[in-house]
Automatic annotation (TrEMBL):
Residue span, Guanylate cyclase domain: 57-192, 285-406
Protein known as: Guanylate cyclase domain-containing protein
Residues in coiled coil: none
Pfam family, one: Guanylate_cyc
Length: 493
């Protein structure tokens, strides 16, 4: 498997044929009317080939004690991963209750981060924010109760923002993702992850649109008023959430997680086949790739109207699909999910035993293949957008499974220290580029460390040549033209 420019161009032409149509007038509540079977989350409701402009509240919850459960005694073991997955499964089951009523819509989960959107009552930002605050308060109470029942920590930090986002659903079968692109989703997520202090926090935009008296100044910063929170929580019944908490709290039978080593490449793993009792686990290189500058690009498109929105949807669709193709088709990796404009995935080497250096090398070559495809995508959509690609890579033992509901609403999950730190490593990059996490840096071979030292993403051909990869153009030439070997040897002297 390898990246190839002609093959990438062919794929990109196919991606252009599946760009979602844009309806900038349809609201999320209109999409609800299309449901003829049981009400489900956005993943089941939004058509794959349409993009929607959605105004509402984005609520992110960050499980603050996630990191402490990853390892025991400083090491990641099957036991620590089982405990971590039980912890996530418990919280996911409770959060899934928000799709059973009109409290909100569960969008997705990404490790310790939980995402919901509230669009009711339509057109009333202050009321939507109050509903989101009430839901956050109830979820905090639920987490505390479940923590006491099952012996898990229960601290959550919530971030809330309000505004308009582009929404679209991508993927097929059991591997769909509903994406919200734009400032409100991005800023709420960043606020939730900003500190280790539990509570409910509003962005400046949400503070300005909240009801009078909702926020007050305390110790030099604006915080939610306790009375406002208490009144908000008391204003909504949240019956479905209460029922789910009772169910999970009283459930003495916890899922049994059994791990097996997957057959490689990881691309052959199907999440539809995974379950707690049929989970996979091995040493993997976790990749987190982010389109730098994309939130500003989308916000300008939303302000520019339907034509600019259509261009933005076309750009993100083609880039996202092609990055997935590079990961899956060219390098045998496995996409866990799209997270907004980001892609989270893993690659692995070593049929019988973990091959850390090989996995990190494969991830680095894959990242540079992504860079080459990224450039081809921008050419194909004729975009001069000020966007780039930032990729973080980390290595470590990682389990993959499905959690929460069975079927289409189940949660694809890869959770480990490597998945956590790949994202944090990516976030530490200013602008575009590539960076290895601490463990990946330690296990990488000398050649990989040498080309990573620049922090730049190279073209695939340049990176594979410098690494002497079997798929590099120079190696291919020497294989097909033996006479070139002596020239190559002389040039190294």
């Amino acid at each position: 498997m390898s990246w190839n420019a002609d093959r990438a161009k062919t794929r990109i032409r196919e991606h252009l044929k599946t760009v979602p149509a844009v309806d900038s007038n349809i609201a999320l509540d209109s999409a609800r009317d299309q449901t003829t079977v049981r009400k489900s989350g956005l993943i089941g409701r939004l058509p794959i080939r349409q993009a929607f402009l959605v105004e509402g509240v984005h609520l992110y919850g960050q499980l603050l004690d996630f990191d402490g459960l990853v390892a025991e005694g400083g090491s990641e073991t099957e036991g620590s991963h089982r405990r971590l997955l039980r912890f996530l499964n418990m919280h996911y089951r409770v959060w899934d209750a928000v799709v059973d009523n009109d409290d909100g819509d569960r969008v997705d989960y990404h490790g310790a981060r939980l995402h919901a959107v509230i669009t009711s009552p339509a057109g009333d930002a202050a009321a939507q924010i109050t509903r989101a605050v009430a839901l956050a308060g109830k979820l905090s109470e639920a987490a505390e109760r479940l923590g006491q029942a099952h012996g898990f920590p229960s601290r959550i930090r919530f971030g809330i923002d309000h505004g308009r986002c582009l929404a679209m659903t991508t993927g097929r079968s059991h591997e769909k993702d509903t994406l919200f692109l734009g400032r409100p989703a991005n800023h709420a997520a960043k606020l939730a992850a900003a500190e280790d202090e539990a509570g409910i926090f509003l962005t400046e935009t949400a503070q300005q649109r909240a009801r009078p008296g909702a926020v007050r100044k305390s110790a030099g910063r604006m915080v939610l008023d306790e009375t406002y929170i208490r009144d908000a929580v008391g204003s909504f019944a949240f019956d479905s959430l209460e029922r789910r908490v009772d169910e999970v709290a009283q459930d003495a039978v916890e899922p049994i997680f059994r791990f097996k080593r997957p057959e490689l490449p990881l691309a052959s793993v199907k999440f539809a086949d995974l379950s707690p009792a049929n989970s996979v686990r091995m040493g993997m290189a976790s990749i987190f790739a982010d389109i730098d500058g994309f939130t500003d690009f989308v916000d300008r498109a939303i302000e520019g109207g339907a034509v600019e929105i259509t261009k933005a949807v076309r750009t993100v669709h083609v880039i996202r699909e092609e990055l997935n193709s590079v990961l899956n088709d060219d390098f045998g990796g496995k996409r866990v999910r799209f997270v907004g404009d980001c892609i989270q995935g893993c690659v692995a080497q070593g049929e019988r035993t973990d091959d850390g250096p090989g996995s990190v090398r494969q991830a680095v070559i894959c990242a540079n293949g992504m860079r080459s495809s990224f450039d081809l995508c921008l050419d194909a959509v004729d975009s001069d957008a000020a966007i780039g690609l930032a990729i973080g890579v980390e290595y470590g033992p990682t389990p993959m499974t499905r959690l929460g509901y069975r079927g289409d609403d189940s949660v694809r999950c890869a959770a480990s220290r490597a998945t956590i730190n790949a994202e944090r490593t990516q976030q530490s990059i200013e602008g575009s580029g590539i960076r290895l996490g601490v463990i990946a840096q330690q296990v990488a071979d000398a050649a990989v460390r040498r080309i990573i030292a620049t922090g730049r993403l190279m073209s695939f051909d340049t990176a594979s040549d410098l690494l002497g990869a079997s798929q590099s153009p120079a190696v291919q030439i020497m294989r097909s033209e033996p006479a070139a070997r002596s020239h190559a040897a002389r040039s190294k002297r």
